[in-house]
Design goal:
Strand order of the largest sheet: 11-6-1-2-3-19
Shape: globular
Largest sheet: 6 strands, mixed
Number of strands: 19
Helix content: 25-40%
Mean pLDDT: 88
Bound molecules: adenosine-5'-triphosphate, magnesium ion
Strand content: 25-35%
CATH class of the largest domain: Alpha Beta
Low-confidence stretches: 1-8, 389-400, 402-421
């Protein structure tokens, strides 16, 4: 099919593409950043994800096919072709920690952008084993001499600049498999972004990120957590329990297939006592052998599993003094946060204000996207556009595939790389 030239669509905007390879769905978005604030979504491709387990690639060909279908759909709906895209990653192979970095500033000079780069260079040069790659080094809490909580040090005078840095590392093999499977669909990874950082970018209000807030993206295979504070990143984590495990437990417990259990979950599941908008049946399923599954049995398994999931999140966050670090509370997102009543149960478990977040600041082809399940997909566009290029990036011993990609990257301008095929 002949595809329209992207330039006709552009105006003054910049085009970006993102692929969210989730455990249950793949979503490709092509977005035009019009006035540096709002993405106009011009291409959407959503399909079932095959070959992923707990957010990691377990079958290269299946994931490649799923990504290809989703990319083609987004390309056809937008009329532009994608050469590269921002890709999300998560899973239990991710680890993160806070470290600090400091540099001295020459006398009589104000802090410059170059100094900030120098400061971050320290973090990126940290030695890591060959099995791990550094994904993000996000600075926060700048300190100039003895003055802490400096928002933006550029232009200020000081003899020493300190910063806390949130470092995120990932297993190299998991990253390489992801890059390879996306490559199978003819797309290069423009940047690999930790998914909860993307989700936060999509669903949080600026004031929440400033005072401190937790994003909990409960998807299909993993629950991803990011704590934002002072407009930066404080803590990130991934837990291998989410909607898939709820459905699987319903299937085991009720003796039905996974597909039947998923259908029952979507139809009947709610954590609200009053079950607004949900049926109130005696039985959830009549069996072929004249048996039936009582509603109570279904609800008991559901409640136990969801409460246990929230407890695991609580344990993960136990080291943080959430009332101090995240007074804005918890924003749930991801497909499983669509379970009615999640915010109320969360409030009970965490003792903090809770809400469910959907992607903000999007226009265009959005009828599907105002949905918590697409927080990561939309957020990948935002995080990529806001941070890629500003963030120093150095892969720890790049794989041959990454090296090849980086050499193409150096030779070809970003614009051509993305859409110039
Ligand atoms: N109305 C609903 N009630 C309860 N669960 C729901 C509802 N709608 C979707 N889900 C669940 O949301 C999950 C999918 O969420 P999502 O699309 O965010 O996952 P994903 O991005 O594919 O996976 P991951 O991010 O974990 O790799 C499925 O387990 C699905 O059962
Ligand atoms: Mg997801």
């Amino acid at each position: 099919m002949m595809l329209k030239s992207p330039r006709k669509l552009l105006g003054n905007g910049k085009l970006y593409a993102a692929i969210d390879v989730g455990t249950t769905k793949v979503c490709t978005l092509i977005g035009l950043l019009e006035d540096d604030e709002i993405f106009r979504i011009i291409g959407v491709g959503i399909g079932r994800s095959l070959g992923m387990r707990k957010a990691v690639v377990v079958d290269l060909n299946q994931v490649g096919d799923s990504v290809r279908d989703s990319v083609r759909e987004a390309e056809v709906s937008s009329g532009v072709r994608i050469n590269s895209a921002f890709i999300g990653v998560t899973g239990t192979h991710i680890s993160s920690f806070n470290t600090s970095s400091a540099i001295s500033i020459p006398q009589d000079q104000a802090v410059s952008d170059k100094d900030l780069q120098r400061l971050m260079q320290h973090a990126w040069e940290m030695r890591m084993s060959n099995e791990r790659q550094l994904l993000h080094a996000v600075p926060s809490n700048y300190k100039l001499d003895d003055h802490s909580e400096v928002q933006n040090p550029v232009g200020l005078h000081s003899s020493r600049l300190d910063s806390q840095v949130h470092m995120v590392t990932a297993a190299s093999h998991a990253i390489n498999n992801l890059i390879k499977s996306v490559r199978k669909a003819g797309v290069a990874a423009e940047d690999i972004i930790l998914e909860p950082l993307a989700s936060g970018e999509a669903v949080l209000r600026p004031a929440e990120k400033d005072v401190g807030v937790v994003v909990v993206d409960i998807g299909g295979g993993t629950t991803d957590i990011a704590v934002f504070r002072n407009n930066s990143v404080w803590h990130t984590a991934a837990i291998p329990v989410a909607g898939y495990q709820v459905t699987r437990d319903l299937a085991y417990g009720l003796g039905v297939s996974y597909e039947e259990a998923e259908a029952l979950k979507i139809k009947y599941a709610t954590m609200e006592a009053e079950r607004k908008g949900k049926p109130v049946p005696d039985t959830v399923l009549e069996m072929e052998d004249n048996g039936s599954i009582p509603f109570r049995e279904f609800q008991d398994i559901l409640t136990a599993r969801v409460e246990e999931m929230l407890e695991l999140i609580n344990v993960e966050l136990a080291t943080e003094d959430l009332h101090r670090v995240a007074p804005a509370g918890i924003v749930f997102t991801g497909g499983t946060s669509k379970l009615p009543g999640m915010a109320n149960v969360g409030q009970r478990v965490f003792g903090l204000p809770c809400r469910v977040g959907v992607p903000r600041n999007i226009s265009g082809l959005v009828h599907m996207l105002h949905d918590p399940a697409f927080a990561t997909s939309v957020g990948l566009l935002y995080w990529g556009a806001r941070n890629s290029g500003q963030e120093l990036r150095r892969m720890n011993r790049p794989s041959p595939l990454t090296r090849m990609w980086l050499s193409v990257r150096r030779r070809t301008p970003f614009w051509k790389r993305l859409f110039g095929r």
